[in-house]
Design brief:
The protein is mainly α and 161 residues long. Helix content is 53%, strand content 0%. It is built from 8 helices and no strands.
Length: 161
Amino acid sequence: MKKNCMHNLAYTSFALALSLASAGAMAQTYRVNVQPLIKAQCADCHGALAPTLAEFKLAEEKYKKEKLGPRTDTYENLLQIVVYPDSGAFMRRMDDGSNTGDKKPGNMYKYLGDTDSERQANLTMLKAWVGEGGWNLNRWGARGDVAGITKEQMDKVKVKY
């Protein structure tokens, strides 16, 4: 009887460990992981009262003076600055500088949290949401020395709802 109990306990512990490991590896989703972060950290300037990306592009200087950026209050609005038409804008703004030659963080990185560890944790989550190899700073079209995003790079973007 004791042997059976130990076997069951070992099996249960193994199953729990396996379950926790797979939960840690689960894909990040917009609804569960990204939306709460965007709402908490970005809504003041990028919420429902902010201009759409198209409106923002028509009067960038005006909106910048008002401290408003393109709206990111919905999955669809956010995807416009992740994949198209403003490919990579989200990544360029949120990046910690590890993907740039000058190592300068994007202008919105500082809003990912109050501490370096909180910012890094949120950035890690966002990178996981975008997908392995999907975090790139390229625009839709080439600009200067930076090539435009390739089909191969775009295929790596996962951004699950």
